[in-house]
Amino acid sequence: MSADYPIPPPRASAESPEAHDLAAPFGDVQTSLWRGAGFAPRDRALPEETPVAITYNRVSHAVMMATPADLQDFALGFTLNERIVATPAEIEEIEIAPAPRGAVELRLWIAPERMEALDHRRRHLTGAMGCGLCGLDSLEEAMRPLPMVGSTLTLSAEDIMAAMASLYPAQTMAQKTRALHAAGFWRKGAGLVAIREDVGRHNALDKLAGGLRQMGEAPSDGVLVMTSRVSIELIQKAAVMGVSVLVAVSAPTLLAVREADSIGMVLIGVARDDGFEVFTGGQRILG
């Protein structure tokens, strides 16, 4: 083994019979593809997304959503990039342990002096550590239950196209910089009611949520349109807002599809000039 990479091969925990059953990094779903002449079924591959908890010497540090592949590399790279250790030699062991609901724990054991420095660092931080899922440090928080969608809003395919088409002309900062995400709210009969931009897609959605609350708009009455892919965090935020229909430029993750379907949210992705794909709630979108 190279002296530059003196870490034992990762071992799977034997604490459960699923010790070796990590989720596949991608999977197939069936969608409804709309291209102007009605809907047609389509099979599509989507990336998997799973909560990954990182612990150091059995102390929880952070939870992130990640593709369940190359997890030893992820554990090593994260630990080095966050300057928790200076060299791989300060990592004594990495254990990959499957957890309930497809989650994974990356358990690292680091040198005592590095753990002491990490404890000191955590005690002196005034906020979140700048990594992980909005400061969460447990898998339970990452997969908290979501409220069911109460709206039965029904829209036409033309409504979806109009909602998405309204977004780009209103992205004034993105047109100047080509470096910003946008989240907008479109309502039938009113058009694009509000739009917020930010370098982070989560930040753009949070800004929109605050704006809609101050405007007195009900997110369940229209369409949330976004310029990004759809991860589980966006589904979680949209559900808390009361969003009924979410439309995005890019595709969702498998976990986002499962969660949207479980709460009754219409999830549409790959929305472009020539059409879109319905991933959940297709009965509420009329061709």
TrEMBL record:
Catalytic residues (UniProt): 131 (cysteine persulfide intermediate)
Pfam family, one: FdhD-NarQ
Gene Ontology process terms (BP): Mo-molybdopterin cofactor biosynthetic process
GO CC terms: cytoplasm
Keywords (A to Z) from UniProt: Cytoplasm, Molybdenum cofactor biosynthesis
GO MF annotation terms: sulfur carrier activity; sulfurtransferase activity
Membrane-spanning intervals of the chain: none
Subcellular location, record wording: Cytoplasm
Main location: cytoplasm
UniProt function note: Required for formate dehydrogenase (FDH) activity. Acts as a sulfur carrier protein that transfers sulfur from IscS to the molybdenum cofactor prior to its insertion into FDH.
Family membership noted in the UniProt record: Belongs to the FdhD family.
Listed name of the protein: Sulfur carrier protein FdhD
